[in-house]
Amino acid sequence: MTFSNLGLIGSNLKKLVESKVVDKKLEELAPSISFTDLEIIFELLSFEVEKIHYLARRREFEAHMQYEGDELDLLSFYLDNGFNIGETEYKKNLALNLSMKSKELDPYIVGTSEGKTCENRS
After folding, report:
1. Phi, psi values for residue 114, rounded to 5°
2. What whole-number distance in Å separates Cα of residue 71 and Cα of residue 45?
3. What whole-number distance in Å separates Cα of residue 27 and Cα of residue 14?
4. Does pLDDT of 52 surpass 60?
5. Taking the alpha carbons of 1, 62, 35, 37 in that order, is the dihedral positive or negative?
6. How far is CA 53 from CA 21, 61, 83, 116, in A?
7. DSSP states of the chain as a string?
């Protein structure tokens, strides 16, 4: 099953479970990342260890946090702090609005699509 047509909830497993789009528990699911977003993630994270860390921490972060945003919003947030937000990650009554955080990546994404050399953020 592909979740690419589901907008923001396509990359948010908790929302998929809560909206009954899937009949699995969160622990039974793997993150759904579009190929285009995965390409951007792998371009911006230069080293294999960074890619592995992003994917591992993304899964942990999603399991602990309530958030609004898509995959590139998550990536931009990760580039700021590695998903390291201390004890805040475990507060059940907090939701982060990461929507539009990906706008910080637009100069890189647009620039590289136009053939310009852009500095890698990692």
Report:
1. -95, 5
2. 14
3. 10
4. yes
5. positive
6. 28, 12, 10, 28
7. ---GGGGGGGG-HHHHHHTTSS-S-GGG------HHHHHHHHHH--SHHHHHHHHHHHHHHHHH-EEE--HHHHHHHHHHHTT--GGGGG-TT-EEE-TTGGGGGHHHHHHHHTT-------
The C-alpha atoms of residue 8 and residue 94 are separated, in whole angstroms, by 18
Q: Are 38 and 114 in contact (CB under 8 A)?
A: no
Angstrom distance (rounded) from CA 16 to CA 102: 21
Q: Helices 35-44 and 106-113: crossing angle, nearest 10°?
A: 100
In angstroms, how far is CA 116 from the centroid of its own chain?
25
**What pLDDT score does 109 carry?**
84
Q: By mean pLDDT, which of 6-20, 53-67, 68-82 is the weakest? A: 6-20
- What percent of the chain is predicted at pLDDT more than 90? 42
